[in-house]
Amino acid sequence: MKKVVNGLQAFGKSLFAPILLLPIIGLFIAFGNVFGNGNLAQYVPFLEIPIIQNTGKFISASAVSILQNLALIFAVGIPIGLAKKDKGYAALTGLVTFVIFINAMHQVLELAGRIVPAEAMQLSGQAMVLNVQVLEMGVFSGIMLGALVGILHNKFCDIEFKGVFAIYSGHRFVAILAIPSAMILGALAAEFWPIAQNGITALATGIKNLGVFGLLVYGFLERILIPTGLHHLVYTPFLYTELGGVAHIGSEIIYGARNIYFAEMADPAIKVLSDTVNWDARGLSKMFGLMGAALAMYVTADKKKKKMAKAILFPAAFTSFLLGVTEPLEFAFLFTAPLLFVVHAILTGTGMMLLSIFGVHAIGANGFIDFLLYNLPLGTTKSNWPMFIVVGLLMAALYFIIFRFLILKLNLKTPGREDEAAAETNSQEKSTTKKVIPNGPPAELGATIIGALGGSDNIENVDNCYTRLRLILKDPNAVNEQVLKETGSKGIIKSGNNVQVVYGLNVKSVRDQVDQQLGGI
């Protein structure tokens, strides 16, 4: 079981490379809409100038083209996340493998006489991928091939041959294994993908038939899995595959909630965003719900400790509201009051359900900055974003009332309500522990973190996601959590040999300093 969890965590981590790239694409689409969308021109006259309108449309249309090539992005990005070394070679092998896969599938379809005319492709489940006509697999093909290449790379990239065969050692041997594997998988996909597609369609239909309750379950699972790092495995299929919806936009069929609203943003012919946008409304709890939770924890803090609670809660809540980065605030109560985290997960799903019930169709995936950039250029018809704010304020009130009630009723130990004995212990530990400034000299900070992780010999792999340092350790019990907190850590999560240290938005700087001390792993 431990191996399964470790494998899922590693796979979830590998999804970060492509997933974190896509919101950047979305921002370019939104930026293009600011200049190319006629709604804002009514209020800002200079936007009516043709060259500005055309520039906006140029930016938006150029960025949205990536949606037709998402499978390739995943095929290249996942090996980067999975590979423990030589990530560039892993990515190149992923690219080559994907190209061979789609051409192998095309050859099987052509030999079997199953290639249909262009006008019949959509009805027959076929599409053009890199100008090759294949079965429409969406991002599933890229995810499958990326995972295959990542596994082969880690297992065989260090293999060495002698003599005349030495040239085929290392990453070249990985390619030797990956290429025929891609051919076989392409042939199998041509025969069996329609069966898998029918299963996915049935699953999507089942979720849709759950109605608003499906959003409740989805929102709950996505949030409750945050501590494990497996939440990416919940939302990724809904954002980028048929599970999150199917839409016919322009001349293309678009799969996945996020892909759909990106395409709708860039298409002026679309007058109202699809309701599938609510599968990506995870920002409701980030912008509004957690603000109410932070306020509840602050008002229930002991009077003598309110200043300390304010210093912990308010910056974390502000980060969550503006940027959608929730870990600094969630980890403030996750371990001391886990019941509140369960309630938080339930309320996250409840909020998404309410958005659907009230017919809200606004883009709210992350923080308030993204919310404004995405929705304001669309106007209040295409995106009824004021209703999103109304529901958000309702959720903030619910969070505040429920959190305050539970904290007082159950005497939960949220920030500012710790026992005096625990506070004294922490004070003594801090007084006897050398304080490490998080943004101090790289040598000092990197060396301190490595020491707190059990030393360089205890570290097998170092990586990071948006907010966490993700490590594989030989002995997780050797971790000194108190010292890690002194370096700025907001929390530590252990699962088998996988250890996640939450640092927030500066995690990339922390990772660089650790790598510098390790000399690369």
Describe the structure.
α5 packs across α6 and α6 packs across α8. The strands form three sheets. Strands 5-6-8-7 form a four-stranded antiparallel β-sheet. It has a two-stranded antiparallel ribbon with strand order 1-2. The model is unreliable at 421-435 (pLDDT under 50). A hairpin with a 2-residue loop joins β3 and β4. 44% of the residues are buried. It is globular and about 75 Å long. It is an alpha+beta fold. 62% of the residues lie in helices and 7% in strands. It has helices at residues 2-14, 16-36, 38-41, 50-64, 70-82, 87-111, 121-124, 140-156, 171-209, 212-224, 232-240, 257-266, 283-299, 306-323, 327-330, 338-357, 368-375, 379-382, 385-410, 420-432, 442-452, 481-486, 507-518, and strands spanning 126-129, 132-135, 246-249, 252-255, 459-464, 468-473, 491-495, 498-502.
Outline of the structure:
The protein has 521 residues and is of the alpha+beta class. It has 23 helices and 8 strands. Helix 8 runs antiparallel to helix 9.
